[in-house]
Amino acid sequence: MQHDHLSGIVIEEAIGIHRELGPGLFESVYETVLAARLEARGLTVERQVPVPIIFDGHAFEAAFKVDILVEKTLVLEIKAVETLGKAHAKQLITYLRLLKQPVGLLLNFSCATMIEGVRRIVNNHLSD
Q1: Can you say how many angstroms the Cα of residue 91 is from the centroid of all Cα atoms in its chain?
Q2: Which helix (H) or strand (E) holds 25?
Q3: Which residues, including other chains, have CB under 8 Å from residue 121's CB and lie 6 or more apart?
Q4: pTM, to two decimals
Q5: Which of 120, 10, 23 is nearest to 70 (CA)?
Q6: How far apart are CA 21 and CA 102, in angstroms?
Q7: Per-residue pLDDT tens over the stretch 49-70
Q8: What is the mean pLDDT of the chain?
Q9: Phi, psi angles (nearest 5°) of residue 8
Q10: Nearest of 77, 97, 75 to residue 85 by alpha carbon
Q11: CA 38, CA 45: separation in Å to the nearest integer?
């Protein structure tokens, strides 16, 4: 499935969840509900996926954890914060590089409308 199509499904479900639950809940709640909705749509969903890192010749298993990985290719980072900062985007681009994935979505459920809380991040450094 193409990234644009997957992203569309994720955004559609995130908007629906935001309309029903509203802002103000913990990130873990949005993650759980979004994962269930995506699975109900027939997508393969993995939660809290360990991301290993190799640094100075040492392997660190599960140095990070990705909130949701859809169809083994679309990385979702779930937030419930007042404002998305540069650090949030940098976090997602790091996950994309480490996993060698091309696209991720940063989803902030604390915005007034969900569409304000969606940022698409593209990894232009797949060969790193």
Answers
A1: 10
A2: none
A3: 89, 92, 93, 96, 103, 104, 105, 106
A4: 0.90
A5: 10
A6: 30
A7: 998 888 888 888 877 899 999 9
A8: 92
A9: -60, -45
A10: 77
A11: 7
Region class of 71: left (phi > 0), else alpha (psi between -120 and 50), else beta: left
How many angstroms separate the CA atoms of 67 and 46, rounded? 8
CA distances from 76 to 3, 6, 32, 39 (A): 12, 11, 12, 14
CA separation for the pair 41, 108 (Å, rounded): 21
Structure tokens at 116: 């304000």
Residue type, 46: E
pLDDT tens-digit readout, 65-100: 999 999 999 999 999 999 888 999 999 999 999 889
What sections of 41-121 are H helices per DSSP? Answer: 86-99
Q: Which residue has the tokens 């979702």?
A: 76
Length of the chain: 128
Could you give the CA distance from residue 60 to residue 2 in angstroms, rounded to a whole number? 31
